[in-house]
Structures are given as C-alpha cells and as structure tokens.
Amino acid sequence: MNIEEIIDQTVKIPEKTQDIRQIPALTLAYLGDAIYELVIRTTLVENGMSHVDSLNRRASGYAKAPTQAKIFHMIETDLSEEELGYYKRGRNAKSGSVAKSGTVAEYRIATGFEALMGYLYLTGQMDRILELVKKGIDSLQG
Question: Across all residues in the chain, what is the average pLDDT?
C-alpha cells in the first residue's frame, strides 16, 4: 500500500466545510499542521523506516519551522495565485506564539505553509498536498 492509498483510507475530507475564505488563517494552519505531519509520518514509514525513535526524530525535523520554510521556498514557484494567497494569509496572520526553533521569519513562513496545507485539505486536494510535500522532501534530500 502506498501513501496515496493510506491517506485515501484514513483521511476523510469534511463534506460540508464552510466557505474556506471565512476560516481564520491560523485555524487553517492548525489543521494544515496536522495534515502535513500525517503526510510526513506516512512517507517515512512508506520509505521503510520502522524504528520509532528514528521515525520520531526524522518527523520532528521535518516539522520544525526552518525545514518547513526551506520546503516552502522549494515549491513556491509551483504554486497557483490562489494557493499563494492562502500561504500569504497564514504568513501574515498575527500569532500569539513565539518561534521555538528558527527565526521569526521562518516561523511565519512555516505558518503560511501550514495554512496552505489546511486550505488544500479542506478543498479536497490531497493529491496536491502529496505532490508539494514530496517535491519539498526530495529537494531537501537531493
């Protein structure tokens, strides 16, 4: 079973999602963070990693703001205007949180990236999420 099949079987897109434009950017980022984490964890397992400590270390590395910022920069030119708009909403949102790892700029970029993931999820675009995350991961590793 590959990642697409696993996601299709476990992640169900809400049928009656309110108008996406009305959802606060930080709420999209909150949801996007969870979806991104699921994709990362599933990808690591799919690629043959099985030792839990190694899985956790690798997944945590991908979840940090500096890594998410790098991934965003690698996929930025592939984004549509609408996708870029949702990224910018997240990036520009005023958060009460402080960057735990990385700079404030990296944290804001990561929040924008997560908002983009949330938007794509709520609009039923799991294939697009997988495409973007895989491209980012491949670019980091290559």
Answer: 87
The one catalytic residue among 8, 33, 78, 138: 33
Active site residue 33: yes
Residue environment code for 50-88, b if the CB has 16+ CB neighbours within 10 A, otherwise e? eeeeeeeebbeebbbbbbbbbbbebbeeebeeebeebbe
pLDDT tens-place string over residues 100-125: 778 999 999 999 999 999 999 999 99
Please name the residues in contact with 99: beta carbons below 8 A apart, sequence gap of 6 or more.
Answer: 65, 106, 107
CATH class given for the domain over 23-141? mainly alpha
Element of type H or E holding 69: helix 65-75
- pTM, to two decimals: 0.86
Q: Is 50 helix (H, G, I), strand (E, B) or coil?
A: coil
User: What confidence tens digit (pLDDT) does each residue in 29-71 have?
Assistant: 999 999 999 999 998 888 887 788 888 899 899 999 999 999 9
Residue 15 pLDDT = 55
Q: Where are the domains of the chain?
A: 23-141
DSSP 8-state assignment for residue 78: G
